[in-house]
Design goal:
By secondary structure, the chain is an alpha+beta fold. Helix content is 23%, strand content 34%. It starts with 6 loop residues before the first strand and ends in a 10-residue tail after the last strand.
């Protein structure tokens, strides 16, 4: 029929908050952590209460470690990191979307 099956890629949404926090003025500890994540080809989104990025399962340890290491190396006093499983689906001409799934890491089987 000429129809291709969508490709499904399992990813994790990493959310992180780095302190000290100064609204509207991210310090070197925040900029260094973001740059560390971006060095892995990850796009980081700034939010009102923290930052987030989407990584593959193969990237999660390296990206998380780089965020934490660079934040503390540049003056952070506290780093909170949260990982949430999700799925990105790429279909025929679809750009894809992130869909968070309500499954704990302990129950997730891949």
């Amino acid at each position: 029929l000429g129809l291709s099956r969508p490709t499904i890629c399992v990813v994790l949404l990493l959310e992180f908050t780095i302190e000290p926090f100064t609204e509207g003025n991210p310090g070197p500890h925040v900029r260094a952590a973001v740059a560390a994540a971006e060095a892995f080809g990850v796009s980081v989104e700034f939010g009102p209460f923290g930052s987030s990025c989407t990584v593959t399962q193969a990237q999660v340890a390296e990206v998380s470690g780089a965020i934490v290491a660079e934040a503390f190396a540049n003056g952070a006093t506290h780093v909170s990191l949260h990982a949430e499983p999700g799925v990105i689906r790429h279909g025929n001409r679809a750009r894809g979307y992130l869909h968070a799934i309500d499954v704990s890491i302990e129950r997730m089987r891949i």
